[in-house]
Design goal:
By secondary structure, the chain is mostly helical. It has twelve helices and no strands. Helix 1 crosses helix 3, helix 3 crosses helix 10 and helix 8 crosses helix 10. The longest helix is centred in the last third of the chain and has 26 residues. The protein is globular and about 50 Å long. The two termini are 30 Å apart. The mean pLDDT is 82.
């Protein structure tokens, strides 16, 4: 790895860490940067997951008080573990060609979820009464989100918040805390699966790991000064450009 490439990956990871701390959407930076660096999409996806996992851990530690008394946390952790294992395993067995074909759609889904997260959460909140109390449906929904989150990850947190709003699970702060902890579980088991399968590019992962940690610290400070909506618009614009670029690459 050249110094120029290392600096470029660090910069992308720094920006991703800052965005995750402020508004989310870091995967839309780390994954394309790794693909642009020449990594195969499957390896780029695994390496991106490894680089971002410590950020989820750090955020979860900040929510220890909100997590301590949540009744659903054990069951939700178990189904997240199972879904994460399945999603991580799917990455290791899917053909590179199929993964290439899926990538534009996954980026499109992540960008759309990020762009319309507020509207989606509000809509689900208005329809919460119809689903409230259906524990099996909640756990089933969490399992599906975990499969997706381990397979790609972009928009996973938004999906979880929307799901919890649909079931009127708790206050927004406590739902966000639960989402953060379950992100640790889902991404953690996926990362272990990727490491065991040997599909992580470690030089790139370590460079980006340092970048996401530094960016997370800076992002936490930035969050106090900048409106999250500004950064959200930047991420949506970037995601839209990346969606078009990957569609052109695969189907053009």
């Amino acid at each position: 790895m050249t110094l120029t490439l290392a600096l470029a990956l660090f910069a992308a990871a720094f920006a991703a860490g800052a965005l995750n701390a402020v508004a989310g959407g870091g995967t839309l930076l780390t994954f394309p940067a790794l693909v642009a660096a020449g990594l195969p999409p499957i390896v780029a996806n695994a390496t991106s997951s490894v680089s971002q996992w410590p950020g989820y851990v750090a955020s979860s530690l900040a929510f220890r008080r909100e997590l301590s008394a949540q009744r659903a946390i054990r069951a939700m952790s178990v189904v997240s573990l199972g879904g994460g294992l399945l999603g991580g395993w799917l990455v290791t067995v899917v053909s590179p060609r199929l993964f290439d074909v899926l990538i534009p759609w996954l980026i499109l889904l992540a960008t759309a979820m990020f762009a319309f997260s507020g509207q989606l959460t509000r809509w689900m909140g208005r329809h919460a009464s119809a689903m409230h109390g259906s524990r099996a449906s909640l756990l089933g929904g969490q399992f599906l989100v975990a499969v997706y989150g381990a397979f790609f990850g972009g928009g996973m947190g938004i999906m979880m918040l929307a799901l919890y709003s649909l079931f009127a699970l708790d206050t927004l702060t406590r739902m966000n805390a639960l989402k953060t902890w379950l992100s640790v579980v889902i991404s953690g088991v996926a990362v272990v699966t990727f490491i065991v399968a040997g599909i992580v590019d470690w030089p790139a992962a370590l460079v980006m790991l340092a970048g996401t940690i530094a960016g997370g610290v800076a992002g936490a400070r930035l969050a106090r000064r900048l409106p999250a909506v500004w950064l959200k618009r930047v991420v949506v614009a970037l995601g839209s450009v990346l969606t078009l670029a990957f569609f052109w690459k695969v189907y053009g």
